[in-house]
Amino acid sequence: MRNPFFSSMAEFAAGRDEGRFSIEEVTRYFLGRAREIDGTLHACLFLSDNAINRARQLDNRRQREGAPSPFYGFPVMIKDNLEIKGSPTTCASRILEGYRSLRTATAVRRLLAQGAVVLGKTNLDEFAMGSSTENSAFGPTKNPWDLRRVPGGSSGGSAAAVAAGIAPLALGSDTGGSIRQPAAFCGVIGVKPTYGRISRSGLVAFASSLDQIGPFATGAEDALECLVAMAGQDPLDMTTVARDPEEMRRDFDRTSLSGLRLGIPEALFGEGLDPEIRERIGEVRQRLVGAGAREEPVGLPHSASGINVYYVLATSEAASNLCRFDGVRYGRRTAKAGALREMYEETRDEGFGLEVKRRILLGTFALSAGYQEAFYKKARKVQAMIRRDFLEAFTRCDLLVTPTSPTPPFAFGEKTGDPLSMYLSDIYTITANLAGLPALSVPAGRDKNGLPVGVHLIGPPWSEGRLLKVAGEISRYYDPGLPPFHAMSAGAGGVR
After folding, report:
1. What is the torsional sign of CA 302, 267, 424, 452?
2. What does the alpha-carbon distance between residue 251 and residue 270 come to, in Å, rounded to a whole number?
3. I want to staple 179 with a disulfide (CB 3.0 to 4.6 A). Which of 174, 231, 279, 403 is the partner?
4. For the chain, what is the radius of gyration of the CA atoms?
């Protein structure tokens, strides 16, 4: 068990309602654990000043009115590119030092309306640009399975917090794999929903046509509850779709492995994939087939172009979105600058990190006069082909099974000097973003070094419930257990 109170949201709700523990006790435990171990892990950027008061208020209300949902009093960590009114939102960037949000992200607001307790904000690659959380302006997060290795990125803080038992649930954002890749590296479940399922309002934009918000959890049903609570149309985000969030729960309940068609794109199991990861995923496939599923070979002919398409489109949108950070309206301003143009340039030079600058320059180039046709517009055409490939594959299968990452968690500094190698960390995840499809990573055991391996499931639009049901079945056989850092700290972090 990852904490002394419960192992799932359902157990939490039962213990809460039966009076075995109070919401305040649970909140104090997790805050205490964060204070005890996060000096080493650095998963959190800051802890909430209000969490204990909110927990106490929820306890008092529950005694009078009962608890309206399983989420009532449940502790959650939030990635620090999601806004909470009155709280800092840094996006792990110096350029937003001192900024406090004027609104609360819709996804967070909906969790709060269900009674969630926000414990604090988690670390990330600056503006969610990275695959290792090494790009944070406030220092990297460490992987609780091996402190010498990265937790993945960009949502590495959220993944590490859940894996290390700092929180039972955390929110991240996913533009090209930023939930699923760190979930694989840290041995937890991470879900990217269908584009349009969850509002992006209050998520600081990286690439608006690709960004999505999703949960990290240790169990499929906890992730499902979180998605249902956050989903739904939002007038503040015109890309959201009017679909009943409860359809995910219905799909979860009625999905069976018997007769389920598993699409296997064999081209994604070839060169560049670590042999042990291939072996672990092969075992998962055999297990699913043994439970009644059947495999269907599928082709995704344009997926090989996905990495090229992604880094044209994502950087182009980043260049457009980040031009708002100019030192005038909010955040950092370089005081010594004279003329307005100099102030812009010096503020951005001091405020943005190397990777953010690199992506802004790439995107500005792709959008510049004379190059839009050759790069941006061509990338949009190939993106449409990638989506058609997936929709064609889903006429022959119910979901796709692929690796999440081509390698196990890598060491700090191993890829920072080679941006292309770092970008290839997301080679299996980016196409789901380009096609707007739901996808998740679920633990599939460990390699010979004891590091977690993730298997990647991709489904047709709006199939989150189905994916989570299959992930739950996989988890029955391949629970990676607790990371060594968690075990070494098992006695730490008592109630304060």
Report:
1. positive
2. 32
3. 174
4. 21
158 labelled catalytic: no
Range with the poorest average pLDDT among 240-244, 262-266, 366-370: 366-370
Q: Could you check whether the bond before residue 155 is cis, i.e. omega within 30 degrees of 0?
A: no
Percentages of the chain per state (helix, strand, coil), in multiples of 5 = 45, 15, 45
Residue that wins the pLDDT comparison between 240 and 335: 240
CB atoms inside a 10 Å sphere around CB 164: 29
Q: What is the pTM of this model?
A: 0.96
Cα gap 313→383, rounded to integer Å: 9
CATH of 9-256+414-488, one of 3.90.1300.10, 3.40.630.30, 2.160.20.10, 3.40.930.10: 3.90.1300.10
85 is catalytic: no
Active-site residue identified among 79, 121, 142, 192: 79
Phi, psi of 62 (to 5 degrees): -65, -40
What pLDDT was estimated at residue 384? 98
> pLDDT by residue (tens digit) across 203-236?
999 999 999 999 999 999 999 999 999 999 999 9
Question: Please, which residues have CB within 8 angstroms of residue 217's CB and are 6 or more apart in sequence?
Answer: 162, 168, 169, 188, 189, 223, 226
- Of 48, 136, 154, 475, the active-site residue reads 154
